[in-house]
Design brief:
Elements lengths: L1 H25 L5 H4 L2 H11 L9 E8 L4 E9 L6 E12 L5 E7 L3 E3 L4 E10 L1 H10 L5 E13 L2 E5 L3 E6 L3
Antiparallel strand pairs: 1-2, 2-6, 3-4, 3-5, 3-7, 4-6, 7-8, 7-9
């Protein structure tokens, strides 16, 4: 009786495990396909994404406060998604593009709500070091502007943290 029970037990295990293993192998490159059919996945994606492409924020303006060594740079950003997003934080290190000199740090001035399909202004505060001020005077005294690289960019949007490995270069006018 024991061998028959063991054989029946093995047949039961194989009958349950084989289909699960087979489906896992078939969907190994798309594990969400095991749970959601392609039709359901398409409906879910169309609820979030629109046909509008994601564009890089566009420079709008900048202002300076010489006593605090800060600049406020405003960008416009069009939210192409079919969902409201919240920009919680943005941070980056600043470097002179020409001389690869560390200039300071950038951060989001305040949390920004990006409504579905709307364009919002985003203000980033750039804080210069005393060494950066000296660098401007020594290396860019006759320049009307300076190219600044934003590196080590980190963004928190609606709780999703994004690290951007590429640098972003912006040109900031120099005022006297």
């Amino acid at each position: 009786m024991k061998p028959l029970g063991l054989i029946l037990f093995l047949i039961t295990v194989i009958a349950i495990a084989a289909p699960i293993i087979g489906v896992t192998i078939v969907y190994s490159d798309n594990l969400s396909g095991m749970i959601f059919s392609p039709e359901v996945e398409e409906v879910m994606l169309s609820a979030i994404y629109s046909d509008e492409p994601l564009e890089i924020p566009q420079y709008v303006s900048s202002s300076y406060n010489l006593s605090s060594r800060t600049a406020q740079v405003t960008f416009s950003f069009a939210n192409p998604f079919k969902a409201t997003l919240t920009l919680n934080s943005v941070s980056a290190d600043l470097k002179c593009t020409v001389h690869n000199f560390a200039l300071g740090h950038a951060r989001l001035s305040e949390q920004v709500q990006l409504d579905e399909g709307k364009t919002e202004n985003i203000t980033i505060v750039l804080v210069w070091t005393e060494d950066a001020e000296e660098h401007f005077q020594n290396e860019h005294a006759n320049s009307s502007g300076i190219d600044v690289d934003l590196v080590n960019i980190q963004i928190d949007i609606s709780g999703i943290s994004i690290e951007i490995p590429e640098q972003v270069t912006i040109n900031l006018p120099i005022i006297e």
